[in-house]
Design goal:
alpha/beta; D-Maltodextrin-Binding Protein, domain 2; eleven-stranded mixed β-sheet; four-stranded antiparallel β-sheet; 15 helices
Amino acid sequence: MAGVDLLQNFLANHSVHQQVGRTNTEPIGGPAGEDRSRLPLAQVPPASERSARHRRYLFQKEIKFPCNRIQVSYTLILPNGGGRIPEDVDSSPLWMEDIAVKKTRAVMVHGCLLVAGGLLALTGCASAGAGSSTSNSGANPADASKKIMDQAEWSKVVDAANKEGELTIYGLLSPSMSDPLPAAFQKDYPNIKLTYVRSNPADITARVDAELAAGNVGADVVDILDHLTFDGYANKGALLPLTVPALGDPKVDRANNQRTPYVVTMGSTVYAWAWNTKLMPKGINSWQDLLNVDPSHLGVTDPSISPIVASVLQTTEKPQTGGSAFLDKLTSKGAARSYPGSNPEIAAMAAGEISATMPVPAGNVASVKATGAPVDYKVYPNAGSIPNEVVVLKAGKHPNAAQVYVNWLLGEAGQTILAKGMFPVREGVPGLIQTNGATLEEIPQITTDEAKAFQQRWKKLLGQ
C-alpha cells in the first residue's frame, strides 16, 4: 500500500488519543471553493459556507510505516463549535486539514509554548514498489501549491518597488510603532517612501470599502483588522497572495503565522489591566479590584469600533477571568467612561482623567510607561491575545512596494519596531511586554452578528 493510502486508512480507522497545542475559534478564510485539504476524510466546504464558530484542534498520532515509526500531526475542524472535543469524535461530523507526517517541534516564544503544526511534508518512508509523496514543508497550510518566491522572482519585485517609489498603509499601530516605522523602513529602502495612516478599525474598514467600490484604492497595505473583514476581502478577490521570502525563513513559523494565503501575522496583542500609578499606587491585582473602581474613573474601549473589542470584553466573563455577569456587576454602580480606541483611553489614564482601564493592549501601555508616564499594567492570568494580521490590496497603486514592506516587517528590523508594542513573531527578537509567567489564551474572533448582539447588550448595560 502506498504511503498516502496507508496514512488515509490509518486516520480513517483509529481513534484520536492525544490532543496537543492550543485550540482556537476562528473563521477559516480564503476564496470560496479553494481546496484546503491535502488528504481529506470529508470534503471541506468553501469559506462562504463555513461558520466563524468552527473550532480547530491540533492532534498527534503515532503511525508505523514499513520503514519507520513517525508522528502524524493534523488538524480537525469540528462544525459543532463546542468548547470541548466530543467523546464520540470519530463519529461526529468533522473535517480534516493540515495533515503532516514528521515530528512536530516545540518552540518557546516569550514564555508561551507553541506547537508547530500546519502543513508539513509527507516524508521519509516508501516501501519497495510503493510511492512516496513529498511537499515543501514551508508551504502555507491553506494552499499547498503556494511556494516562496525564489531570488530571481524577488529581485524583480524589489526592482519594481523601487520604481513605484512609495506605499501607503492604513493601520492601527500605536504611535510607539507607527512613528518610527517610516524612517526604519526607508533606512533599508531609501527609494521607497512609506506613509502610515493611523485610524480606528471602523473608519479604516469604511474607507477601504468605499475605495474598493469606487475603484480608486488609496492604501497598498492594511493591518490589524479582524479576521472576518480580511477574509471578506479575500473572498472578493481584493487581496494579493503573500509568498514573500521572509515566510521561508526558519525564524518565522509560516505554519502558525499565515492563516490563509492572503494574510500574515506580524505580531500578537496581549491584553492587560492598566492603571495610573499616582491615583492607584497599589495597582490592579484582581478582577474584584476593577469592580471596586468608581465607574466614572474607569475607562473602557467602545465595542462598536470593532468586533475584536467586543470579543475582548466578552472574555472578561469567562470562569477563569471575571466570571459570569462580570459586566453586569461592573456597570451596576454606573457607566464606565468610553473611548474610541485603546490609545486615547491610555492617554486619558496617563493624564489622570481616569484611574484605571478595562483590559487594553499591554504593549500600548508599556510604550507609554517607557516615556516616564505614571502608568503601569499587569498581564492577568489567562489573559487574552489576538494575532495581528497584515494584507496587501490587489488594487493598490504600489503592489510591489507593499510586498517589500511585508517582507521587511517579518525581518529583524521590522520585528524590532513591532516589539515596542506587541509580541513579535520572529524568533530571537526581544519584546517589551512582561507577562510574568501568565498563561495566554487566544481570544476567539466573533461573527458580525455576535458583535452586534454584544454591542446591543453593552448599550443596555450603560442605560443607552
